[in-house]
Amino acid sequence: xxxxIVSGCSSxxxxxxPSQNHAHETSYAPVRIGLVNNMPVSAFKATEHQFVSLLxxxxxxxxxxxxxxxxxxxxxxxxxxxxxxxxxxFTDELxxxxxxxxxxxxxxxxxxxxxxxxxxxxFTQLVEWARHNSLSxxxxxxxxxxxxxxxxxxxxSRSRTKHxxxxxxxxxxxxxxxxxxxxxxxxxxxxxxxxxxxxxFAHEYQLLTRTPDGEVDTFVKQxxxxxxxxxxxxxxxxxxxxxxxxxxxxxxxxxxxxxxxxLPRDYFDVSTERSFSSLQRSAPSFSRxxxxxxxxxxxxxxxxxxxxxxTAALMYSNWIDYLCxxxxxxxxxxxLDISRAAS
Length: 343
What we know:
Blueprint: E1 4-6, E2 16-18, E3 26-28, E4 31-36, H1 41-59, E5 64-70, E6 88-90, E7 99-104, H2 120-133, E8 134-140, H3 142-152, E9 157-171, E10 184-194, H4 197-202, E11 206-210, E12 216-222, E13 226-230, H5 240-253, H6 270-282, H7 288-299, H8 309-329
Parallel strand pairs: 1-5, 4-5, 4-7, 5-6, 7-8, 8-13
Antiparallel strand pairs: 2-3, 9-10, 9-11, 11-12, 12-13
């Protein structure tokens, strides 16, 4: 069913509605999900589109009411800067309300320490709200790192190279979130930082998938609410990594970064990889305009095969099923036998 964008989180009943037609069947109030979009202006609308499209693909016959939020202190806190953002409200408005599910995006860091970010206080308040007022929350990329830091003091560490591209992640759990998935899942990644698996185990997180180099991919924790952490970006659309690669080249040309960006892993076809690799070798001898012209020429011929969309829709569909099961069974997520969500 199409996702319906609703204003705020104060409408609709929280729970189950009886069917009018069949005594032994039930129909539900829409699953109520909040999206906290923390991305900068350049990626804000694209990020909203990614998650709305993914929820549409995953919802099947479940009706979803989606509320849109931003944190105070992010680059979009001044909502009046763009009249199209009138659909968004601050996460402060969540106080006193409940949602079935919540999705919190990452953003580009502006400080060396996450706790120094201007939105940190709003973010930590959101984590505590989600613990007690959602059935389940998805924390994406930097939001996952920030939540770990607040909840358990787990620090992320910077890698020598960027994790960038499509990673064939190995499944290491039979968890219901991966119901229907094979032993290996394709997941987009775009990050410099990661989390040590030993730190997660020390604080009772459960690992679901690993990247090919043995690093953490997706993990979960059962708290008062059920928390899901994606270091990758299953929500990415076909050309998202291409846009990020082009952005990174622009930063290199603008002397914002010192090294030429790495090609996204397992993303382009062989011919395109060769063209971009050749261009990288020639970059020092090209003028900025010449390099941009060559990049534009290559991009005109690119054809990208999306190898991860079905995996993303599967995991989000399983998550929506979990929310429906929690609404039906009544007890808190901590008391619920979550294996029923996979039955």
